[in-house]
Write a structure and sequence with these properties.
Distance between the termini of chain A: 58 Å
Number of strands of chain B: 0
Largest interface: A-B, 30 and 28 residues
Number of helices of chain A: 14
Oligomer: heterodimer
CATH class of the domain at 26-211 and 237-288 in chain A: Mainly Alpha
Largest sheet of chain B: none
Shape of chain A: globular
Strand content of chain A: under 5%
Shape of chain B: flat
Number of helices of chain B: 15
Distance between the termini of chain B: 67 Å
Number of strands of chain A: 0
Strand content of chain B: under 5%
Helix content of chain B: 55-70%
Order of helices and strands of chain A: HHHHHHHHHHHHHH
Largest sheet of chain A: none
CATH topology of the domain at 26-211 and 237-288 in chain A: Cytochrome Bc1 Complex, Chain C
CATH architecture of the domain at 26-211 and 237-288 in chain A: Up-down Bundle
Order of helices and strands of chain B: HHHHHHHHHHHHHHH
């Protein structure tokens, strides 16, 4: 071990790297658990990649065999059930973690100057995660996945001129078919992992380059940012071990939640229709997307004009991505901004309300 | 589709040979649960019967049908009555094979289009013989009703219904003979649902149970207590084998729960250690 350390020291300056990035790197004094959600999302992604690769050993991306291969994984491959459940639970928990992360960054005002780009990349990461889940949802080729994908890929067709074309490009044919399955599989295992890794690398680079932000406090006014400099916290605790222990704790909480669901409610995210092979001639009674898409789905149903409903959602997504450029206020503490606080709470309540409404 | 082709192929193959092709068909039929069929919501039959133009006694039919067991399993008007469900003009013509309200003697044949085994047992029974010879015996509709037909159960054998024609004594004896097997079938069915909820594959067991249950139910219609008693042992053996398979499923379910709980506990322990480590550093 010491010889390996010495070998690395000579080649990459290991000691200096550890000091500058871990032990001597300081974070803000009042940093809290909300700041660990980013690393939890990264670990969630690593788990998804690991379990996904194991599933790929047995999964067959073909409309004739996809469903049966999933059944084979669940019932005949040693511990296949465990890895598939970890993948399914992980997908849902990862969305929850990223949503929580974005929510906490928003409420802590960490998206403000000079971190606008970090927010934009983070928002794109959230969309990538949703792309991951959407493309992965079709792969089991069950009634649920087939019809949910039929509904989702039909959404762009509401747009005049190009809508139909976008739908057709997504599906690869007039309707969801084996071609769609191949496309979604390619997106899920090649395109989205590449996109996510690239965006994540950029996100981490921006976080470390600018410096981890500090939670807003009453005693400290946000500094005026006129030229680039690394935001440091010389009086704060070291990144390692203080902050790393917090991160490790939250990662373990994530795994505890995952395994609590696997052991106590394994079918939580795998309803009845997910256990029936896709049948294009048999439409199930209630087609419902995953919980995180329920709110936008319900919103679309509430707005009578389909085009207006989708256009409104596109506008909301654009506003969400570019929010830091629209919010000009210099105050970071949301508690001191009643209007912003009210908007934030109302948005969360509407999202939760529509989700609950949609799940009925 | 594959199952349908199998049935057609079987029909073709066995019809050229002498003998029991119906037996083969009966065995094949229960392998193809109707539950996989899409539910039919709109046909010209339903539209017309739902409309205000219809006489009150016929207007109630779609409402009754929507609550019945056939509807839940994708069986629609034309499956029993023939006719063309897409063309109002042809919907009730003889050319489209339409069959309207059936006379009592015609009913066994009408329902027996699909329920082949049951029809055979019924026609050989005292009930069937009485109907075919005198025209006054009980037919399918008397016990099961027509448009508000529900899933068959032993509750159909009751003093009120049987008492319309005869005393309940023999029927009671018959019901007692069927009761244990029926209870076992219900128990296995409940267990299979529990396993399904735990994501254990039960497809083979469900198909076997469906087949056994369908075969067993043809016995009801023989109205022959001795035959039922004689074959009960055979069904009990089949159900015992099925119970063993279900038991294996429960063993697997328990292993999965125990194993994931074990990993959960490891993470809980790790969490406590990391938390204490963090506190000490602070």
């Amino acid at each position: 071990m010491p010889r390996l350390r010495e070998w690395l020291e000579i080649r990459i300056g290991l000691d200096e790297l550890v000091h500058s990035q871990l032990t001597d790197y300081r974070v803000a004094k009042n940093i809290n658990f909300f700041y660990t959600l980013g690393i939890v999302a990264l670990v969630a992604f690593v788990f998804q990649a690991f379990t996904g690769i194991l599933l790929m050993f047995y999964y067959i991306p073909d409309e004739k065999d996809a469903f049966q291969s999933i059944q084979f994984i669940m019932n005949h491959v040693p511990y296949g059930w465990l890895f598939r459940l970890m993948h399914v639970m992980g997908a849902n928990l990862m969305v929850a973690v990223v949503l929580l992360h974005m929510g906490s960054v928003f409420s802590l005002g960490s998206y403000k100057k000079p971190r606008e780009l970090t927010w934009v990349v983070g928002a794109l990461l959230l969309l990538t995660v949703l792309g991951f889940t959407l493309s992965g949802y079709l792969l089991p080729w069950s009634q649920l996945s087939f019809w949910a994908t039929t509904v989702v890929t039909d959404i762009p067709s509401a747009f005049p001129l190009v809508g139909g074309l976008i739908s057709k490009i997504l599906r690869g044919s007039e309707n969801v078919s084996g071609v769609t399955l191949n496309r979604f599989f390619a997106l899920h295992v090649a395109f989205f992992p590449f996109l996510f890794s690239s965006l994540f690398a950029l996100h981490v680079f921006l976080v470390r380059r600018i410096g981890i932000s500090a939670p807003p406090s009453d005693s400290q006014e946000p500094e005026e940012w006129k030229e680039f400099h690394h935001e440091s916290h010389p009086d704060g605790p070291p990144f390692y071990p203080d902050f790393v222990s917090k991160e490790a704790f939250m990662v373990i909480i994530y795994l505890i939640v995952m395994f609590a669901i696997i052991s106590m409610a394994p079918a939580l995210f795998i309803p009845h229709d997910a256990g029936i092979a896709a049948d294009p001639l048999n439409t199930p009674e209630h087609i419902r997307p995953e919980w995180y898409f329920l709110a936008p789905y319900e919103m679309l149903k509430l707005i009578p004009n389909r085009f207006l409903g989708i256009a409104l959602q596109v506008v909301l997504v654009v506003v969400f991505i570019f929010w830091p450029f629209m919010d000009k206020s210099e105050k970071t503490n949301i508690l001191k901004r009643p209007l912003m606080l009210a908007t934030f709470l109302v948005t969360i309540m509407v999202y939760l309300g529509l989700t609950v409404w949609g799940s009925r | 589709m594959r199952s349908l082709l199998t049935v057609i192929c079987l029909l073709c193959l066995v019809s050229v040979s002498e003998g029991a092709w119906t037996e083969l068909l009966q065995k094949e039929f229960p392998k193809t649960p109707w539950a996989q069929r899409p539910r039919v919501e709109r046909t010209v039959c339903i539209d017309c019967h739902d409309s205000d133009l219809m006489k009150p006694e016929y207007k109630a039919i779609p409402g009754e049908w929507r609550k019945n067991w056939h509807y839940r399993n994708g069986v629609s008007c034309q499956d029993c009555h023939g006719g063309d469900p897409k063309d109002a003009a042809r919907s009730m013509t003889p050319q489209s094979g339409f069959l309207g309200v059936q006379k009592p003697k015609e009913i066994p044949e009408f329902c027996g289009k699909c329920h082949l085994g049951i029809k055979e047992n019924y026609l050989e029974s005292g009930h069937g013989k009485a109907l075919m010879t005198t025209g006054r015996g009980p037919n399918c509709v008397l016990c099961h009703h027509s448009h508000d037909i529900q899933k068959a159960s032993l509750e159909i054998i009751n003093p009120k219904l049987c008492g319309i024609c005869h005393t309940y004594d023999r029927a009671r004896e018959m019901k007692a003979a069927l009761l244990l097997t029926e209870a076992k079938i219900n128990e296995i069915n409940g267990n299979l649902q529990t396993l399904k909820a735990g994501l254990i594959d039960t497809q083979d067991e469900e198909e076997t149970l469906f087949r056994t249950q369908a075969e067993y139910r043809t016995l009801f219609h023989s109205v022959d207590v001795n035959l039922v008693k004689a074959r009960t042992a055979e069904f009990s053996k089949m159900l015992a084998t099925l119970s063993q398979q279900v038991g294996k499923g429960f063993k697997e379910l328990k292993f999965r729960q125990d194993f994931s709980t074990f990993i959960l506990l490891i993470f809980v322990g790790l969490g406590i250690m990391v938390f204490l480590w963090g506190r000490r550093k602070e």
